[in-house]
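DM from R.C. (forwarded with permission)

"hey, sorry to bug you on a friday — could you get me a structure for this? deadline for the figure draft is monday and I only need the backbone to look sensible"
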Amino acid sequence: VYQGPTSIIHNGDFETGSLSSWATSFTTQCQFLGYSINVSLSSPRSGRFSARDGCHGAMDSLSQRFNALA
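My reply, with the result:
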């Protein structure tokens, strides 16, 4: 998502190698089992990194808030 030439999504492609600027939320089941969302070198769409969800079959999320102009 761009506002003029500037991306308003920070670290949108995870190329910092971390989940900086992203909020994560996990179910109690995922936390209890020690699963999480992390950055991986496995199967990126482009670049070097991708986000990997380690908890399958349960509700969790990865999100980022931003302000968009109408």
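R.C.: lifesaver. The helical segments are 28-33.
me: no worries. The first strand starts at residue 2 and ends at 3.
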